[in-house]
Design goal:
Layout: E1 4-5, H1 8-12, H2 16-25, E2 30-36, H3 62-73, E3 77-83, H4 102-115, E4 143-146, E5 160-163, E6 166-169
Parallel strand pairs: 1-2, 2-3, 3-4
Antiparallel strand pairs: 5-6
Length: 170
């Protein structure tokens, strides 16, 4: 059995230089993190011109690159859950609504998978020199999900649509 944890407060917003060594001491083997596509901590605050390219200037991966390197340094694997649709991808319907075209999610997922394939070296301007050398690839992330708890409308809505006098699963 693997030991895993989900602690968004400490991983995304906390002092990761202290958090990951603590997780290592606790023998944590994997951490599930939300990879925010849009929203406050989103990678894609504006529509990318080349959405499958992790180097598109619309993307800001810096938070996740840093977490990826800290996790690898401490022997912890990451499981990333893509959540939070950017407003430009769903007509402003809200971050918990699916994109109007699933091709946009597919191309974002491709960009993320390429970036965290284990062989991708970010451009120098995107690297944190305290965590990596100029030719060090980002550590591989091999576990992925889309929409944590898609049956929960907090994460993905709408769940049901009224059809006449009954409700139908969307």
């Amino acid at each position: 059995m693997r030991v895993g944890i989900y602690d968004e407060a400490q991983t995304l917003y906390g002092p990761v230089d202290q958090t990951f060594p603590t997780f290592k001491q606790l023998h944590v083997q994997e951490i599930r993190l939300n990879l925010y596509w849009g929203g406050q901590y989103g990678v894609a605050q504006k529509r990318p011109l080349h959405p499958a390219d992790p180097n598109d200037p619309a993307y800001d991966w810096s938070l996740y690159d840093r977490l990826d390197r800290y996790a690898a340094t401490n022997g912890i694997e990451l499981l990333l859950s893509i959540v939070s649709t950017p407003s430009w991808a769903n007509g402003g319907a809200g971050k918990n609504h699916a994109p109007t075209s699933f091709a946009s999610l597919q191309t974002f997922a491709k960009a993320a998978a390429t970036r965290y394939s284990g062989s991708y070296v970010p451009p120098l301007a995107q690297q944190d020199p305290t965590l990596a050398g100029p030719t060090d690839p980002l550590p591989a992330i091999k576990m992925w999900t889309a929409w944590n708890e898609p049956n929960n409308p907090v994460f993905l809505a709408p769940q049901y649509k009224r059809v006449g006098k009954t409700w139908r699963v969307e």
